[in-house]
Amino acid sequence: MADFDSPVTGKSYPDHPSAETPRARGDKITGDRYWSKDFAEREWEKMWKRIWHLGGRESQIEEAGDFIVHNFKHESIIMVRQKDGSIKAFFNVCLHRGNQLVTAPEGGVVSHFTCPYHGWKWNMDGALDWVQDEEDFPQGSPCGKLRLKELRCETWAGFIFWSFDRDAPPLQEYLAPIPELLANRDLHNHTRVVWRTLRVKTNWKFASDNFNEAYHIPAVHPQFMPMIDDHYANTLFEMYPSGHNRMIEKLQPSSRAPDAANVKPLWAEVLREWDIDPELYEGRAQDARVALQQARRQLGPKRGFHYFEKMLDDELTDQIHHTCFPNLTMTGTPEGLHIFRTEPDAEDPNWSTFDYWYLVPPIEGASEVATLYGMRPYEEAGHETGSFDNYRTEIAQGDFLSQDLSLAETQQRGLHSMAFEDAYLAAQETRVRRFHEVLNDYLEGRR
Ligand code: FES
Ligand SMILES: [Fe+2]
Questions:
Q1: Which of 78, 90, 120, 143 has most ligand 1 atoms within 8 Å of its beta carbon, as the pocket-test mutant?
Q2: CATH number, position 388
Q3: DSSP alpha helix (H) spans, 287-384
Q4: What is the CATH number of the domain that holds 148?
Q5: Burial category of 55 from C-beta neighbours within 10 Å (exposed 0-12, middle 13-18, buried 19 and up)
Q6: Is the pLDDT confidence value at 434 over 50?
Q7: Do 86 and 39 belong together in one domain?
């Protein structure tokens, strides 16, 4: 399907000239990185204070005065839609005597945030407009003088990001080249149909490590093998100078399976859904991937998947994992975008929060959409929160997040052992070490 090849590279997946084959210096990955309070403190000072943080979706704050709150470590950030349509981010702290201005995770104000303690009224643009007994301040009225402390706030693709660092590079520059690699998806018009936050007893870096390799798939997610090719020889691994990485796994039976040529029931089901006779591919099951691309190309728009028209061939089948330094993974599939984000606990490096969002593009005529949790209404999801322990009992076994997070907890325990001195990595795990090296670059002043 030459028409859909990328005009720049001739490749059938989005590509960028800055892509490099992953290589690493060889910095050690020691256990203390995952549990030492001192290490966590250095991460806070040297890294978390400088990066861009994903704060939410623009669709959460459509009207002027709508706000959302993002708590990160011991800080709390308010993002609020302005009258001119822009979004500002403020520290959620009243500059009178330090009370938190808002306690709700989201909401709306008509014009002002009123501090619950002494009633100071802060305009949604950050100005202080009213205080009680204004004349009683010998140093002069604070109105017109004080402003809420503002943070950098920028948007991309319907996502709101903020940064503590006044001198951070522009968001798009920070994320580069991820926005270009995701450019065939109109992410601003996607709907977040799953929004879940879990508290997990593991360090936040577990998820970055985990999404930087597919080596764990045969042992942890055997259910993927009939239709995801986790073999490194068929997987694309890339890293970018910005510190972000990518991995593309093909949608086809795993090449490591001795019977990879056989069509398994799961794969047959997918093919049938797109009017492909699985029998035709018996004995050469992996060839069906290209047939599936062609079928989706031809039938997709008729079935309401108009967005397929903008996608390159490989985007119509494959799993494209973008690991954005430090804590954000965006996995594009033909069906939607999976977002995984981990954040450190305020006090204890042995705990973190794990967020999973699932965003889907518009599909004409669809009122429901398939998710990890079964069919869900095609609408913005409410926030589901809880502990991983509760999640594990409530969610069916075999869910890939349960599988990954169970390992996250046992690995966290193992990393406390004095016997663990460094990881012994396969080549296909090079991005794991690379992630730690980028982190070290922050901690040691090279970034
Ligand atoms: S602390 Fe906010 S008005 Fe006093
Ligand atoms: Fe996994």
A1: 120
A2: 3.90.380.10
A3: 288-299
A4: 2.102.10.10
A5: buried
A6: yes
A7: no
Say if ligand 1 is within 6 A of residue 130 CB: no
What are the backbone dihedrals phi and psi of residue 206, each rounded to the nearest 5 degrees, phi first? -50, -50
Place of tokens 């020889």: 233
- What are 211-270's pLDDT values in tens digits? 999 999 999 999 999 999 999 999 999 999 999 999 999 999 999 999 999 999 999 999
Angle at 411 between CA 410 and CA 412, to 5 degrees: 90
Q: Each residue of 43-52: b (16+ CB within 10 Å) or e?
A: bbebbbebbb
Å from CA of 114 to ligand 1 middle: 9
Confidence class for position 11, pLDDT limits 50, 70, 90 = confident
Residues 203 and 136 grouped into a single domain: no
- Please indicate, yes or no, whether residues 108 and 227 belong to a single structural domain of this protein: no
Q: What's the number of domains the chain is made of?
A: 2
**Does residue 272 have its Cβ closer than 6 Å to ligand 1?**
no
Closest among 273, 239, 188, 204 to 34, alpha carbons compared: 204
Cα–ligand 1 centroid distance for 95 (angstroms): 7
Residues 296 and 396 in one domain: yes
The reply to whether 285 falls in a domain is yes
**Per-residue pLDDT tens for 22-56?**
999 999 999 999 999 999 999 999 999 999 999 99
CA of 93 to the centre of ligand 1 (A): 9
**Structural domain boundaries enclosing 425:** 2-49+176-443
Is pLDDT at 1 greater than 60 in this prediction? Answer: no
Atom 4 of ligand 1, nearest CA residue: 118
Instruction: Please state the rounded mean pLDDT for residues 323-336.
Output: 98
Please report which residue ranges of 163-287 form alpha helices under DSSP H.
171-175, 178-181, 205-211, 217-220, 265-273
Q: Which protein residue's CA is at the shortest distance from atom 3 of ligand 1? A: 118
| 196 plus 87 within the same structural domain | no
CA of 123 to the centre of ligand 1 (A): 14
Dig out the tokens for 157 from the structure: 């693709």
Does the structure show a pLDDT above 90 at 391?
no
Mode of pairing for the β-strands spanning 328-332 and 319-324:
antiparallel
CB atoms within 10 A of CB 380: 12
The Å distance, Cα 99 to ligand 1 centre, comes to 6
